[in-house]
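Much of what follows relies on a compact textual record of a protein's fold. Think of the row as the fold of the chain written in a discrete alphabet. An example makes this concrete, so a full record is given next.


***
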Amino acid sequence: MHPQITPHIDVALLVFWAFLLFFAGLVFYLRREDRREGYPVEDEISGRIDTVGGPLHTAATKSFLLPFGLGRVTAPTKGREPVAIAAERIALFSGAPYAPTGNPLADGIGPAAWAERARRPDLDMDGHPRIVPLSAAPGFWVARGDSDLGGWPVVGADDRVAGSVTDLWTDTADRLVRYIQIAVGDGAILAPMMMAKIDRRRRLVRIDALLAAQFAGAPRIAASDRITLYEEERVQAYFGGGYLYATPARQEPLL
């Protein structure tokens, strides 16, 4: 027999109602939290901004203290200006895709899009930049029996030479190579190591994301011994977008 508080209310009933109140509060909290970024929404066709709504649509501002004295960030972000992109809809219906009107590799369209990440390097547990040139990383070297690729030519999807390898950039926290430094034209660029194929027999590096002539347009980094999170976004976006935008044929269906 359940313990009773009154003839019509017992402990089991109180626990049941407490659970319902907790669950309703949890749903209310989560629906506010998932509106921290990307709101208010806008109409796809007209661009009209939707109303913010009541308390369910407004998350309270939170501040996050960053490590190593890097300050604070707040969410939701207020006052962010919309980013203009060089693209237009191919038709006026909901969900219509955008077609690039400029250089899609550099304009942030589709797979070449990037996020506005922090203009500082990614840090290791000690607060030091974790991705640095191998030539400036004491205690790190290429495993015996493998090449550091120095001087090897880099070819694009058209099998033409885009430049030559001058250094490797290593992730000192994960102990692996993240980027290949390539001499192109009057400077150097970084290319993602994960997109490169090493041909040991021919002693060359193949990166089929881009044509050879497109390597020179890759984003340049400001410092010679570190790369910021924002610069990583730009580099990854440029090369990643090449798998769709490097040639017109890549934008056509396979069948």
Remarks:
- The helical segments are 11-33, 229-245.
- Residues 4-33 form one domain.
